[in-house]
Amino acid sequence: MQSYIYCRDKPRSIILRPIVSSEKYNPLILSFKQATQNSDSRPISNVRLLQESEINLEDYRKLNQKPTYGCLGLLQIEDDIFLSVVTKCHSIGEIRPQESVYRILNVEFYSLVNSAWDSSPNNRTNYDENESQNNYVHPCYQLRKLLSNGHFYFSSNFDLTKTLSARIKSYSVDKSNFDEHFLWNKFWIEELLKFRSKLDKEKQIEMDNNGFLVLAIHGYVGRQDALICSNKASISVISKLSCKRAGTRYNTRGIDDDGNVANFVETETILQMQTACYSYIQVRGSVPVFWEQQGLQMVSHRIQLSRGAAATQPAVERHFNELKKRYGNIHIVNLLGSKEGELVLSDEYRSRITSLNEKIRMVEKYNEKIENNNQVKISEFDFNGICKNGNYENAKILLHDIQELLESSAFLVVDSETNTPICYQKGVFRTNCVDCLDRTNVVQTLISKFVLDMYLMQIEIGPYDIGNLFSRHSYLWAENGDSLSKIYAGTGALKSEYTRSGKLTWTGVFNDATKSMNRFYINNFQDKSKQEVIDLLLGKLMNSRKIEIHDPLTEMVRSDMKKRLNEFSEKSMINIFTGTYNLNGNLPCESLSPWLYAFSDHQPRPHLYVIGFQEIVELKPQQIVYADPEKLRIWEDKINETLNFTDHYVIIRSDQLVGTALVIYARADIVSNIRNVEYVMKKTGLGGMAGNKGAVAIRLDYNDTSICFVTAHLAAGQSNWEDRNRDYRTINDGIIFKNGRNLSHHDYVIWLGDFNYRISLSNEQVRELIEMENFERLLNADQLTCEIALGNTFTEYVEGPITFFPTYKYDNNSDYYDSSEKQRTPAWTDRILYRGNGKNKIRQIGYTRAELRISDHRPVMSSFDLETIKFDKETKDRMKRELYFEKLKLVSNSNGSSNKDYSNQTENTITTTSTTSNTTGTINDPIKNWNKVATSVRKVNNPLLPDHHYGNRTTNDFNRLDDSENNDKSKNFKNVVMKAVENAGPPVGILIDLYENNKSDESSKQFKGNNNEELPLNSNNKDKPPIPTKPSILSTKKQLHSSLPSSSSTSSSSSSSSVERSPSLSPLPPLPPRKPQSEINNVPLSTKSLIKKYDDNKPNKINNNNNNNNNNNNGLRRNSFDGDWPHRYAKKLDNENIFLEDDDAFLSKAPSFTTTTQKNGIKQVSKIPPIIKPKPKLIKSSQDSQEIKDNQNVLIDISSSSSSSSSSNTMASSNLVKKVIPQNGDWVPLIPTKANESNYQK
């Protein structure tokens, strides 16, 4: 049914009015206009189905003198809403009686917002002198070009998205029951179909008769007339390209995590005769494993498998389960050859099918089934090898091999009079080559011809009775191959001459060579922009927004669904281990257990291991041109060996940019939860031309939570922090995944790598401060800390407290900082930073380094607990339907009618409904809330980040800071630091939760470790790889409060109180020197008691060369803060809510660990304090070098287990300068740890 399109300018409105006979004066009209957007900026349109008498047609004007053939839907481009209509089409004919198909030849887009694009600007030829033709390019020009290329089809009287078999089984012609695998304009028209489903049945039928809505497929439809036994017949070929994994040749390969494959085509051959209708279905699709082709593709196929076997298997199972559900038994015809990358791909394909059949056999054995019909059968045929030199006749050898299977799979036959099936097709053949184009089309043509001939023989129709039927059949299949090839590769199919005529000539060879050259250019240089247009059509771009149809009831349902989120979603916690290591081109030569098992006490075991490498190969010119992947394979094998000693981990993705590499392992039991794994590499070396510096990013979805990991190697050089800032911005802005997704679109982002930020002090100063263990002064001059403070880099990210020694640069295979001629300045070059999304919870468990000597760097690692969410789509859809009908019933009862037109409601209703659903400001903009929390977290971790004593200095001002200047500034420093702490938000390492302030402690239980676990300090378990002593983990406010005296406490004996508080006080930071007694007398009694207890519990050194175990100041580091700190610390504990009013919602109890000992026959349980590795020594003389060498196995134990003092076990304190701590006792910072040297043997 044809319609005219009209528009009204004020207010803007567009209508579709059907062309009707003169005696029908009041037809139904479909009206469109833009509605006011909601507070959350969702695009909304008012759509109404009216009688013509309800509008004044004189207010409207025709937009096009030519009739339209229905609308494809609504879409948003920037701030404009467009209505897409078919303005030209061509009739293919009737596939069956009353089943007509049309090819779309032209599509126009009309704005619902303004009249700027009403006249067809694409055809405009006259321009003023000062006007540019580019100013008049329609925003939808590329979409118009794609939809008008002659490869889209529709039908007005049957569902073209379904096969003949599916249409007979469904017994329904409702447009809402389309097959979503093949409906290409689903994103545009889905809301209009929902609008249609809410109408009365009579209006639905009349709306369909008017042809207002068009359901389009992409592929090929061809029809030819024929004579069979002197009777008229028709033969048709219908190929439908799936829209689930659609794209161009080199941009879309293999399978995705949902089991959809690239270039998946369902082809149906239909023979319509007077008495019966014959149908036979075949499918083609890319090899269903994760593979890709990177770089410029010329003659050879450089095929790369992008995921491991175990991580691929779940997707393969989903793919074939879907095929079995749709078509029955599956038989694979694999046409891959034995050359180049095809052999690798074929071997992987065969292995996945073998594993799939083994699982099917196990299921059948469990169910006591003997039949093997459910197994996937595979036939391999090296087409290029057997049919080389144009001997395509040899392809018939394949038919002989599969003849028995072809006969058993049968075909569909439908009685033309009763429209009932006589027999069904029992299975389907799935054919593939690399592109699933040329070779595939030849073989599918032969199979279709063989089965059709078999059917004609069964109904006793001989070759003399069919006339030119098979020549018509060959023509249709040749056209089908050309059409599918143009869609996927940009040119017609190769070998098409043989498909048409059954023979090959020199003309055909020349044409194939020309097509190959055209493919090379199109696929390598034009397909990327075409891919973006396809993604825009399918709504896969990140900025794609579906146009909603205004319905007050829908807005009410949306509000209720937000309140009932927990009913169709499930939250869970996962643990992620992240580690970064600059390898300096070295191979593994010692155990990786101290690194990969650093947080082994945290339960559960990590769900993901994310490992970043830098300089995995030596950065030589030849490596920059082509990086050798062999070293990465060796490191992958070593990590795999270490992780799978006691657990089962599989590799998810591994990618390398010259020397920078990123590898992700997943626990085998959670692989099925990971989907949409993608990678991007960004070069920053030599202005973005070389990959010696740059980044590798991998993103994935864990259930419905998106996570991105970035490992980077930034510019080197002591004073090149501006280059490093520039590299960060280049990477942050340049990492763009498929569909336009960038870093800001992810729920969590974790950066790890060698960022190369140095310490802006002289080499002598840095080494002296390391010797003094003065971390405050070092961090004060740390370039990354300062650049974050100035807002020049990593502005949205958080870094945990740095409590470990600088990781760069060491002498090879030693614990000594660089003693070479260059004497490089030590620095924290290796870092890990992260950010959340402001909606979900994130907690950093630990942040430290491992003592591996493979490289001149030390590896750094961190552990995170992340909250993930999973939506139950079926439950969500069911709840939506139930709520809608529930509210419809309530409204109908209140109004006494069920036919109320809700589209007449004012647009203000939309805004009001949406606004009331957002009860908190945090939900409106979670990213801003994350940035606010992240700023507070950074203030606590590094109090230098706020506007401190540097004032308005530039970066150059702190390149060198001498002692006198720092001494002058130190007077103000302590006041600024304390002010920053008082104003700070929750520190890193605690649970960050923006919304659930009043939740019970149930969610926190997921974070808690096993407090009853007994972990001896020196366990030698031969069944596990050597595991380093666990790093200390952040304590919580409750632990600290329970350990310190309250304001009402009285002055009790130090010894008794100390014994009670011993377990909890062990992680407390070291204290500054004791203040004079005169000052102590002026503080409250509870504070005096606290100070006395502090002084009574100074840590001792054991195993010291001097054998000095007395309680002196040798084991206590001098602190850069003033001595009044313990007085203020204790005083703050007397106040309530001194850190945050809702701080309990941000805290989660950290794991603690115990050990059991026997003393005098009595079992005693005590908490394990952290163990501290002695600081790196500076080589000043040969005597010092020998002294260090003799004491490499010295272990400093701060548990002070000596029995010489009654208070020796009451408190353990770190030997490192503490980070700034909130004065109210909310948390305890991370303590650096290192196990005994015996655990680090190669």
From TrEMBL:
Q: Where is the composition biased (Low complexity)?
A: 903-920, 1010-1020, 1042-1065, 1103-1114
Q: What class of enzyme is it?
A: hydrolase
InterPro entries noted in UniProt: Endo/exonu/phosph_ase_sf, IP5, IPPc, SAC_dom
A Pfam family: Syja_N
Task: Give the EC number(s) under which this enzyme is classified.
Answer: 3.1.3.36
* Composition-biased stretches (Polar residues): 1078-1089
Q: Which domain of life is it from?
A: Eukaryota
Q: Where is the SAC domain?
A: 143-490
Q: Name one GO molecular function term.
A: phosphatidylinositol-3,5-bisphosphate 5-phosphatase activity
Q: What is this protein called?
A: phosphoinositide 5-phosphatase
What organism, scientifically named, is this protein from? Diversispora epigaea
Specify the taxonomic lineage.
Eukaryota, Fungi, Fungi incertae sedis, Mucoromycota, Glomeromycotina
